[in-house]
Amino acid sequence: MKNALPYSLLGLLAFLSFLLLLAPANLVMEQLAKRLPGFSVHTIEGAATSGSVQGLSWRGVRIDRLQWKWQPLALLAGWLEFHVNIDDPEMKLAGMAAIDVSQHMRFRDLTGRLLFTELTILAGQPKLPLQGVIEFDLTDLHLNPARHPLSASGMIHIAGLKITLGRQPLILGDFTAQISSTDPEGIQGTIKDNNGPLILEGTFGVLSDGRYRFNGQTAVRDANNHALRQAMNLLGPSDGDGRWVLSLSGILSQ
Known about the structure:
By secondary structure, the protein is of the alpha+beta class. It has four helices and 13 strands. It has a 13-stranded antiparallel sheet. The longest helix is centred in the N-terminal third of the chain and has 19 residues. The radius of gyration is 22 Å and the shape is globular.
């Protein structure tokens, strides 16, 4: 009886894999629509293991085309993993995306670009008066069932960041963040400007329960940039060197 158990489990796994191979892609989209309010697609092609959709929409963000391909070997480690590719004029993404039975999510070799506003919307975060393009190259990113990050490593580049406080947007510049993970400190990172109008350097951290913090300092690079300096004065008076000390903390929403 004991010797038969491994073969029974292997047979069950083979049967489930066979069913997955036969399942049409529209069944997967139907399940996603049940779990993600506002999720919809226009056209579905292929199977659950390898397919594509066109005209995907979620939380008001629209994607022209999404493709995926199942990675069966990941099942040996307990992950249901797919190679995904998003092709859209305003959003690019490619990499491995996986989920396990406990609803943890894992992303590997993830590269792409998208608008800052789209990222905040998809992440379910409050809308900010910021615009720009985010480009990322992440070796790995792990999320817990609450969709809070557990670990991450890689680089994020923010290009053309600007803030709209009045009629005329204020250009802040380009910034680069380097991310790594340590235990038990969680995700740690540094951010620095790339010689734009706003000087910024600091460190940040994110814990698995969603708590985050940022400590750094900022200043206006050009003393004649009166519009940006006036906006920065909303943070309060600067110090004797014309810098503002930043200390932010909070909890990420789900």
